[in-house]
Fold this sequence. Notes:
This protein has about 325 residues and is of the alpha/beta class. It has helices at about 55-65, 85-90, 115-125, 130-140, 160-170, 190-205, 215-225, 240-245, 250-260, 300-305; strands at about 5-15, 30-40, 45-50, 70-75, 80, 95-100, 175-180, 210-215, 225-230, 235-240, 310, 315. The protein has a domain at about 1-20 and about 30-95 and about 215-320: Rossmann fold. It contains ten helices and twelve strands.
Amino acid sequence: MKNEILIETKQLTKYFVGKKSLFNLHPKSVKAVDGVNLKIHEGEVLGLVGESGCGKSTLGRTILRLLPATSGEVLYRGQDILKFDKKQMWEMRRKMQIIFQDSYSSLNPRMTVEDLVGAPLEVFKEGTKEQRRERVVEMLEEVGLGAQHLYRFPHEFSGGQRQRIGIARALILNPDLVVCDEPVSALDVSVRAQVLNLMRTLQKKKGLTYLFISHDLSVVKHISDRVAVMYLGRVVELADRDELYRNPLHPYTQALLSAIPIPDTNRRRNRIVLSGDVPNPYNPPAGCHFHLRCSRVCESCKESAPALREVAPGHWVACQFA
Protein backbone atom coordinates (compact mmCIF):
# COMPACT_ATOMS: atom_id res chain seq x y z
CA MET A 1 0.00 0.00 0.00
CA LYS A 2 1.42 3.38 -1.02
CA ASN A 3 1.95 6.20 1.46
CA GLU A 4 -0.21 9.30 1.32
CA ILE A 5 0.42 11.89 -1.38
CA LEU A 6 2.87 14.55 -0.19
CA ILE A 7 3.05 16.70 -3.34
CA GLU A 8 0.63 16.85 -6.26
CA THR A 9 0.79 19.13 -9.28
CA LYS A 10 -2.33 19.82 -11.32
CA GLN A 11 -1.93 21.28 -14.83
CA LEU A 12 1.20 23.09 -13.65
CA THR A 13 2.66 25.44 -16.25
CA LYS A 14 5.64 27.75 -16.36
CA TYR A 15 6.14 30.01 -19.39
CA PHE A 16 9.11 32.30 -20.01
CA VAL A 17 8.16 35.28 -22.17
CA GLY A 18 10.80 36.61 -24.56
CA LYS A 19 11.98 40.20 -24.41
CA LYS A 20 10.03 42.81 -26.30
CA SER A 21 12.04 44.97 -28.68
CA LEU A 22 11.68 47.23 -31.68
CA PHE A 23 12.02 44.26 -34.02
CA ASN A 24 10.04 41.87 -31.84
CA LEU A 25 6.87 43.58 -30.66
CA HIS A 26 5.07 40.31 -29.89
CA PRO A 27 7.63 37.99 -28.30
CA LYS A 28 6.79 34.31 -28.03
CA SER A 29 6.82 32.27 -24.85
CA VAL A 30 8.90 29.22 -24.00
CA LYS A 31 6.58 26.61 -22.49
CA ALA A 32 9.18 25.14 -20.13
CA VAL A 33 6.53 23.29 -18.10
CA ASP A 34 3.34 22.62 -20.01
CA GLY A 35 0.42 21.23 -18.00
CA VAL A 36 2.22 18.71 -15.78
CA ASN A 37 0.22 16.41 -13.50
CA LEU A 38 2.34 14.52 -10.95
CA LYS A 39 1.85 12.83 -7.60
CA ILE A 40 4.79 12.30 -5.25
CA HIS A 41 4.09 9.94 -2.37
CA GLU A 42 5.53 10.47 1.07
CA GLY A 43 8.81 8.62 1.58
CA GLU A 44 9.45 7.76 -2.08
CA VAL A 45 12.09 8.76 -4.60
CA LEU A 46 10.54 9.94 -7.86
CA GLY A 47 13.09 10.12 -10.67
CA LEU A 48 12.57 12.76 -13.37
CA VAL A 49 14.49 12.19 -16.60
CA GLY A 50 14.72 13.67 -20.08
CA GLU A 51 17.04 15.48 -22.46
CA SER A 52 18.64 18.79 -21.54
CA GLY A 53 16.13 21.61 -21.94
CA CYS A 54 13.02 19.47 -21.45
CA GLY A 55 11.95 21.40 -18.32
CA LYS A 56 13.09 19.07 -15.51
CA SER A 57 14.87 21.67 -13.38
CA THR A 58 12.22 24.30 -14.08
CA LEU A 59 9.54 21.91 -12.84
CA GLY A 60 11.45 21.24 -9.62
CA ARG A 61 12.02 24.93 -8.92
CA THR A 62 8.42 25.81 -9.74
CA ILE A 63 7.19 23.20 -7.24
CA LEU A 64 9.37 24.89 -4.60
CA ARG A 65 8.16 28.34 -5.69
CA LEU A 66 11.71 29.40 -6.46
CA LEU A 67 10.16 30.28 -9.81
CA PRO A 68 6.62 31.71 -10.02
CA ALA A 69 4.18 29.38 -11.77
CA THR A 70 2.23 30.68 -14.76
CA SER A 71 -0.86 28.61 -13.87
CA GLY A 72 -1.94 25.40 -12.22
CA GLU A 73 -1.70 24.08 -8.67
CA VAL A 74 0.98 22.64 -6.38
CA LEU A 75 -0.70 20.79 -3.52
CA TYR A 76 1.27 20.03 -0.34
CA ARG A 77 -0.82 17.57 1.68
CA GLY A 78 -3.86 18.93 -0.14
CA GLN A 79 -3.06 22.65 0.30
CA ASP A 80 -2.22 24.76 -2.75
CA ILE A 81 1.07 26.44 -1.83
CA LEU A 82 0.83 28.72 -4.88
CA LYS A 83 -1.87 30.60 -2.95
CA PHE A 84 0.18 30.90 0.24
CA ASP A 85 1.05 34.39 1.47
CA LYS A 86 4.57 35.41 2.47
CA LYS A 87 4.23 34.22 6.08
CA GLN A 88 2.77 30.83 5.13
CA MET A 89 5.48 30.31 2.51
CA TRP A 90 8.16 31.22 5.04
CA GLU A 91 7.06 28.31 7.25
CA MET A 92 6.85 26.04 4.19
CA ARG A 93 10.55 26.64 3.48
CA ARG A 94 11.36 24.42 6.46
CA LYS A 95 9.63 21.49 4.77
CA MET A 96 10.94 21.88 1.20
CA GLN A 97 14.63 22.10 0.32
CA ILE A 98 16.85 21.74 -2.76
CA ILE A 99 20.26 20.25 -3.55
CA PHE A 100 21.82 22.11 -6.47
CA GLN A 101 23.80 20.69 -9.37
CA ASP A 102 26.86 22.94 -9.05
CA SER A 103 28.23 22.41 -5.56
CA TYR A 104 30.72 25.27 -5.95
CA SER A 105 28.48 28.12 -7.06
CA SER A 106 25.76 27.13 -4.58
CA LEU A 107 28.13 27.68 -1.62
CA ASN A 108 29.22 31.17 -0.59
CA PRO A 109 33.04 31.14 -0.91
CA ARG A 110 33.37 33.64 1.96
CA MET A 111 31.52 31.48 4.49
CA THR A 112 32.94 28.63 6.54
CA VAL A 113 31.32 25.21 6.62
CA GLU A 114 29.86 25.98 10.05
CA ASP A 115 28.15 29.10 8.71
CA LEU A 116 27.00 27.41 5.49
CA VAL A 117 25.43 24.35 7.07
CA GLY A 118 24.12 26.23 10.08
CA ALA A 119 22.56 29.07 8.05
CA PRO A 120 19.06 27.48 7.92
CA LEU A 121 19.10 27.03 11.72
CA GLU A 122 20.12 30.65 12.19
CA VAL A 123 17.50 31.93 9.74
CA PHE A 124 14.74 30.12 11.62
CA LYS A 125 16.35 31.03 15.00
CA GLU A 126 16.59 27.46 16.25
CA GLY A 127 18.53 26.99 19.48
CA THR A 128 21.56 28.85 20.85
CA LYS A 129 24.84 29.29 19.01
CA GLU A 130 26.35 26.30 20.83
CA GLN A 131 23.30 24.13 20.08
CA ARG A 132 23.47 25.09 16.41
CA ARG A 133 27.17 24.19 16.28
CA GLU A 134 26.46 20.79 17.84
CA ARG A 135 23.69 20.18 15.31
CA VAL A 136 26.01 21.18 12.44
CA VAL A 137 28.68 18.72 13.66
CA GLU A 138 26.08 15.94 13.90
CA MET A 139 24.89 16.67 10.37
CA LEU A 140 28.44 16.77 8.99
CA GLU A 141 29.17 13.38 10.54
CA GLU A 142 26.03 11.98 8.92
CA VAL A 143 27.31 12.98 5.47
CA GLY A 144 30.82 11.64 6.02
CA LEU A 145 32.61 14.79 7.21
CA GLY A 146 33.37 15.93 10.77
CA ALA A 147 34.11 18.70 13.28
CA GLN A 148 37.59 19.19 11.80
CA HIS A 149 35.94 20.69 8.71
CA LEU A 150 33.93 23.37 10.55
CA TYR A 151 36.23 26.31 9.88
CA ARG A 152 37.27 25.51 6.33
CA PHE A 153 36.04 27.28 3.20
CA PRO A 154 34.44 25.69 0.09
CA HIS A 155 37.57 26.03 -2.06
CA GLU A 156 39.44 23.73 0.33
CA PHE A 157 37.23 20.76 -0.54
CA SER A 158 36.86 18.42 -3.51
CA GLY A 159 33.70 18.39 -5.60
CA GLY A 160 32.31 15.36 -3.79
CA GLN A 161 32.98 16.91 -0.38
CA ARG A 162 31.33 20.18 -1.40
CA GLN A 163 28.25 18.27 -2.51
CA ARG A 164 28.18 16.55 0.89
CA ILE A 165 28.17 20.01 2.47
CA GLY A 166 25.25 20.98 0.22
CA ILE A 167 23.38 17.83 1.26
CA ALA A 168 24.01 18.59 4.94
CA ARG A 169 22.68 22.12 4.52
CA ALA A 170 19.54 20.89 2.74
CA LEU A 171 18.75 18.24 5.36
CA ILE A 172 19.62 20.05 8.60
CA LEU A 173 16.01 21.27 9.08
CA ASN A 174 14.64 17.74 8.53
CA PRO A 175 12.47 18.70 5.52
CA ASP A 176 9.71 16.55 4.07
CA LEU A 177 10.59 17.12 0.40
CA VAL A 178 14.04 17.53 -1.15
CA VAL A 179 14.39 18.44 -4.83
CA CYS A 180 17.68 16.95 -6.03
CA ASP A 181 18.60 18.92 -9.15
CA GLU A 182 21.16 16.69 -10.91
CA PRO A 183 23.21 16.43 -7.69
CA VAL A 184 25.87 14.04 -9.07
CA SER A 185 26.18 15.07 -12.73
CA ALA A 186 29.14 17.40 -12.01
CA LEU A 187 31.04 14.78 -9.98
CA ASP A 188 33.69 12.30 -11.06
CA VAL A 189 32.32 8.87 -11.91
CA SER A 190 34.26 7.33 -9.01
CA VAL A 191 32.53 9.67 -6.53
CA ARG A 192 28.97 9.44 -7.89
CA ALA A 193 28.19 6.04 -6.39
CA GLN A 194 29.39 7.18 -2.96
CA VAL A 195 27.17 10.28 -2.98
CA LEU A 196 24.18 8.36 -4.37
CA ASN A 197 24.50 5.68 -1.69
CA LEU A 198 24.78 8.39 0.96
CA MET A 199 21.63 10.12 -0.31
CA ARG A 200 19.70 6.84 -0.39
CA THR A 201 20.85 5.94 3.15
CA LEU A 202 19.81 9.36 4.50
CA GLN A 203 16.48 9.13 2.67
CA LYS A 204 15.62 5.83 4.32
CA LYS A 205 16.96 6.85 7.72
CA LYS A 206 15.03 10.14 7.87
CA GLY A 207 11.97 9.11 5.84
CA LEU A 208 12.63 11.81 3.24
CA THR A 209 10.85 12.31 -0.06
CA TYR A 210 13.06 13.04 -3.09
CA LEU A 211 12.26 14.48 -6.48
CA PHE A 212 15.47 13.28 -8.16
CA ILE A 213 16.19 15.12 -11.41
CA SER A 214 18.77 13.70 -13.81
CA HIS A 215 19.51 13.03 -17.46
CA ASP A 216 21.49 9.89 -16.55
CA LEU A 217 19.13 6.91 -16.71
CA SER A 218 21.62 4.60 -14.98
CA VAL A 219 21.74 6.92 -11.96
CA VAL A 220 17.95 7.22 -11.86
CA LYS A 221 17.57 3.44 -11.98
CA HIS A 222 19.91 3.08 -9.01
CA ILE A 223 18.10 5.47 -6.66
CA SER A 224 14.45 5.84 -7.76
CA ASP A 225 11.25 4.06 -6.78
CA ARG A 226 9.22 5.48 -9.69
CA VAL A 227 10.36 7.29 -12.83
CA ALA A 228 8.73 10.08 -14.85
CA VAL A 229 9.98 10.89 -18.37
CA MET A 230 9.69 14.47 -19.70
CA TYR A 231 9.83 15.76 -23.24
CA LEU A 232 9.47 19.45 -24.15
CA GLY A 233 7.72 20.41 -20.94
CA ARG A 234 5.34 17.43 -20.76
CA VAL A 235 5.43 14.13 -18.88
CA VAL A 236 5.14 11.39 -21.52
CA GLU A 237 5.54 8.30 -19.32
CA LEU A 238 5.35 7.46 -15.63
CA ALA A 239 5.77 4.05 -13.99
CA ASP A 240 7.49 2.08 -11.26
CA ARG A 241 11.23 1.87 -11.89
CA ASP A 242 11.41 -1.83 -12.70
CA GLU A 243 8.32 -1.68 -14.90
CA LEU A 244 9.60 1.29 -16.88
CA TYR A 245 13.04 -0.17 -17.53
CA ARG A 246 11.63 -3.60 -18.38
CA ASN A 247 8.65 -2.48 -20.46
CA PRO A 248 8.95 1.09 -21.81
CA LEU A 249 5.88 1.97 -23.88
CA HIS A 250 6.48 5.49 -25.19
CA PRO A 251 8.78 5.70 -28.27
CA TYR A 252 10.82 8.44 -26.60
CA THR A 253 11.41 6.35 -23.46
CA GLN A 254 12.38 3.37 -25.63
CA ALA A 255 14.95 5.51 -27.45
CA LEU A 256 16.41 6.84 -24.19
CA LEU A 257 16.77 3.38 -22.68
CA SER A 258 18.35 1.99 -25.84
CA ALA A 259 21.20 4.50 -25.40
CA ILE A 260 22.28 3.13 -22.00
CA PRO A 261 25.63 1.37 -22.48
CA ILE A 262 25.92 -2.28 -21.48
CA PRO A 263 29.14 -3.15 -19.55
CA ASP A 264 29.58 -6.38 -21.48
CA THR A 265 31.44 -6.56 -24.79
CA ASN A 266 29.63 -9.78 -25.73
CA ARG A 267 26.19 -8.19 -25.57
CA ARG A 268 24.68 -5.61 -27.86
CA ARG A 269 21.64 -3.42 -27.44
CA ASN A 270 19.32 -2.61 -30.34
CA ARG A 271 19.97 1.11 -30.48
CA ILE A 272 17.07 3.37 -31.52
CA VAL A 273 18.46 6.47 -33.20
CA LEU A 274 15.99 9.37 -33.29
CA SER A 275 15.82 11.41 -36.47
CA GLY A 276 16.01 15.19 -36.40
CA ASP A 277 16.66 17.52 -33.49
CA VAL A 278 14.62 18.60 -30.50
CA PRO A 279 12.04 21.15 -31.77
CA ASN A 280 12.44 24.83 -30.97
CA PRO A 281 10.76 25.41 -27.58
CA TYR A 282 9.65 28.87 -28.79
CA ASN A 283 7.65 27.16 -31.51
CA PRO A 284 6.84 23.56 -30.48
CA PRO A 285 4.94 21.40 -32.97
CA ALA A 286 1.20 21.04 -32.71
CA GLY A 287 -0.31 17.84 -31.35
CA CYS A 288 2.16 15.40 -29.82
CA HIS A 289 5.47 17.24 -29.36
CA PHE A 290 7.38 14.08 -30.24
CA HIS A 291 5.71 13.37 -33.59
CA LEU A 292 8.48 14.98 -35.68
CA ARG A 293 10.96 12.35 -34.41
CA CYS A 294 8.64 9.37 -33.96
CA SER A 295 8.72 6.37 -36.29
CA ARG A 296 5.07 5.50 -35.57
CA VAL A 297 3.58 8.90 -36.28
CA CYS A 298 0.12 9.19 -37.86
CA GLU A 299 -2.12 12.11 -38.80
CA SER A 300 -3.90 12.23 -35.46
CA CYS A 301 -0.54 12.64 -33.69
CA LYS A 302 -0.03 15.90 -35.59
CA GLU A 303 -3.45 17.28 -34.68
CA SER A 304 -4.01 16.56 -30.98
CA ALA A 305 -1.77 15.92 -28.00
CA PRO A 306 -2.44 12.52 -26.39
CA ALA A 307 -3.43 12.65 -22.73
CA LEU A 308 -1.42 10.85 -20.07
CA ARG A 309 -3.48 7.69 -19.45
CA GLU A 310 -3.07 4.60 -17.31
CA VAL A 311 -2.56 1.60 -19.60
CA ALA A 312 -1.59 -0.81 -16.77
CA PRO A 313 -1.72 -0.51 -12.98
CA GLY A 314 0.62 2.37 -12.12
CA HIS A 315 1.90 2.73 -15.69
CA TRP A 316 0.91 5.99 -17.40
CA VAL A 317 1.73 6.86 -21.02
CA ALA A 318 0.94 9.78 -23.31
CA CYS A 319 0.83 7.87 -26.58
CA GLN A 320 -2.17 6.55 -28.50
CA PHE A 321 -0.23 3.43 -29.60
CA ALA A 322 0.66 2.33 -26.06
